[in-house]
Specification:
This protein is α/β, with parallel strands linked by helices. α3 runs parallel beside α5, α4 crosses α5 and α5 runs parallel beside α6. The longest helix is centred in the middle third of the chain and has 15 residues. It starts with a strand and ends in a 6-residue tail after the last helix. Bound molecules: adenosine-5'-triphosphate (ATP). This is ATP-binding cassette domain-containing protein.
């Protein structure tokens, strides 16, 4: 369970990255969505005890991120957005170091590392220096770490950025098979649709929407997206959202689409409001 209560983060330069966020989530897979700079990474870093909040509190599986920091660190594994394996160590060595630092014995770490490297498709390159791996493979080293950790809660900040479509599907399948609870961020709406039991959308450090992908889309199913006209500009495309019943006047003139997570992102992530 993830519980945030009035969580606020103001960085030293005065940037308010989180503005009194409060919610409870007991879902197996929670996905944070929001525009660049919305506050997702800040939230993940605070919950995984890498960053102190300015005020407010949070619990991870019932443990307080401030008072029970050591316990939280034991039960979580975190893959930061900017994480890149470095140096001449191989992916196998990276996993051994990570797992022994988490308390696995050498023998356990070796056997777990072998198992997981095969599962994520890095077995063939297990002894290669990670410097010489492709960007996607480097990312997979971290997915392997999360998978091997057996952590109760795994935080993944944009886990599939830079992966080719096939590798992305492989990672999705691995993430879905994990026993750990997942808290992830993504900019790919299809990833959110595929992995999220629950979505929390953040805008300017505040929670704007929360619910399962199904319930969110169900709630707004009476609205359609009209492309080619309207006040909302997405790049060079004009968009408007209208009630299904009012869409007849646009038929034949514009492209009309049912509402999707991307539309909720446009509406709730920006300054627009659904009526
Ligand atoms: N160390 C820092 N010092 C000052 N401001 C920061 C710092 N880290 C992040 N910020 C600011 O806090 C806000 C939230 O940033 P954050 O990285 O949490 O957003 P995000 O939703 O993860 O964005 P993205 O999708 O681009 O990764 C932004 O305005 C960002 O510039």
């Amino acid at each position: 369970m993830i519980e945030a209560k009035d969580l606020t983060k103001i960085y030293a330069d005065g940037t308010k990255a989180l503005d009194s966020i409060s919610f409870v989530s007991s879902s197996k897979s929670l996905t944070l969505l929001g525009k660049n700079g919305a506050g997702k990474t800040t939230f993940m870093r605070i919950l995984s005890t890498q960053l102190e909040p300015t005020s407010g509190s949070a619990l991870v599986e019932g443990y307080d991120i401030k008072k029970d920091r050591k316990k939280v660190r034991k039960i979580v594994s975190s893959i930061p957005q900017e994480a890149k394996p470095v140096g001449i160590s191989s992916s196998y060595e990276h996993l051994l170091m990570y797992l022994t630092s988490r308390g696995f014995s050498i023998q356990e770490a070796k056997s777990r590392a072998r198992e997981v490297l095969k599962e994520v498709g890095l077995w063939e390159v297990r002894d290669k220096s990670t410097d010489s791996l492709s960007g996607g493979m480097k990312r997979k080293v971290f997915v392997a770490m999360a998978l091997a950790s057996d952590a109760e809660v795994v935080f993944l900040d944009e886990p599939t950025t830079g992966l080719d479509p096939l590798s992305r599907l492989e990672v999705w399948s691995i993430l879905k098979s994990m026993d750990s609870k997942l808290v992830l961020t993504t900019h790919y709406m299809e990833e959110a649709q595929e992995l999220a039991d629950e979505i929390v959308m953040i805008n300017k450090g505040r929670l704007v929407v929360k619910g399962s992908p199904f319930s969110l889309l169900e709630k707004y199913k009476d609205i359609v997206r009209v492309e080619g006209t309207g006040d909302i500009k997405v790049g060079r495309t004009l968009i408007k959202y209208v009630k299904y019943a009012d869409a007849t006047e646009y038929i034949g003139k514009y492209v009309i689409k049912p509402i999707s997570l991307e539309d909720l992102f446009i509406l709730f992530g920006g300054d627009e409001e659904l009526t």
